[in-house]
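Example record for the data management plan.
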Amino acid sequence: MSQDASNSSRVQEPTDTISERLARWSVSVAVEDLPADVADDARWRLVDQVGVCIAGSRSASAGIIHRVAAKSGGTPESTTMVFGTRFPAPLTGWVNGAVGHGADYDDMHGVAAVHISSVAVPAALAAAESVQASGAQCLLALATGAEIGLRINTGAPPHQFHHRGLHGTGVAGPFAAAAIASKLLGLDAAATTDALGMAGSRSSGLMQTLIDGSWVKQLHPGWGVQGGITCALLAAEGFTGPHEVLEGKFGFFNALLHGDEATFQFDHITDGLGERWILPDTTYKPWPNGVWNHASMEGTATIMSREGLSIGDVDRIDCFVPPICIPLVCEPREAKLNPRSLYHMKFSLQYSVAMLAVLGAVEVDDYNEATLANREIHNFAARVDCHADPSMLPDTFPARVQLTTLDGRVFEEDVPAQRGTRLNPMLPDDQRRKFRGNVRPSLGDEQTEELLAALEGAWDAQDVRALMALTVPRTAPTIETEAPAHGR
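Corresponding structural encoding:
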């Protein structure tokens, strides 16, 4: 893939724009420049997201995504996890990105409001495999591109895109994927800037799915990966994009957040770039549902375990959360108490608290028709109320839980940071336990352990293709060939 843009064909752009600074930094970063904690974090992002993608492959929506991709076909460059089909890198990235977000078990950054690994990992793996890159090259591109995607969204106040009904992952994802693919393709700073400029025109993703439980949100990371890799491929051939894509009059922020110009904080995007990394601040998920549910789930479980309570002892549960949480997972209350689909369950705080209280655990495969129809869960969810607490900052997805028993006792648990944040971390053994739970049903015990070891040692991998081969069952999985009734 050649990079043959001539000086005569390149559009004259303002100098030292935000995207130019990001591109110059990305091109300059080498493996030895990564702080040890960032290098280690990139490895665990890879472990976590590969496991989440393999878990997501067991859903009905994953089968549909793969069938649609198979109709397009193309040059077999990169591998789809579990399915094993090889497609062009952008199409493979679309499949793995969309399937990996379907379980909603992927990480989330509290300030940027981006599920960054659901974009960065499939983008890095697809692009790396297509150019026969090593594990170190793949992880370096993953870390730098993910950092760029996250930092771009910090140019507006936390969750500002969500307030507008825009999915933070959908809008930032194309930038992250474009940066990752550009680095793996070996593009220079000018071409990388062009790729980022084009990526801005792929930024999209509406949050309406949280209201009705439809599936389209799952596709946002996949579209981001597909669009970002395609932008890098175009830039490699000399196609140009606007260098003021972020701060320009008709650029990313002015177009998507028009009217909020007074709140823009563009200096945050490049402040401390390369010295202070924000990727490791991204929160891992202990449960496969909306991140805003988790602190309330943890607080409820802690009280019930500590006090020896059963569901029959509980009169009501009051969950106090940051205001942004309310429209995402708490309201409309009637819809949250009566989710319409398996996917809809994931975005109801009331139903998620009830699932954990009634079932004792919440795993990927618990999202099934039996759980959706479980009257005990429905009845318990009706005892859960949500309240906005303006004093709570959203950065660490906090909650305060107050549980009242039928005999009038009141217990409280404050969860200032959900499990999976730096302040309340998931340890390596927690990560391995999550990975095994996600992967074993698809790959079996032996191959799961082999893949886990390969991912943990990915910095030393000679070839990403060999690693990707381990994500495909040696015994072919059963793949749904017909669309499920009623889209469920």
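Summary line stored alongside the record: DSSP finds 22 helices and six strands in the chain.
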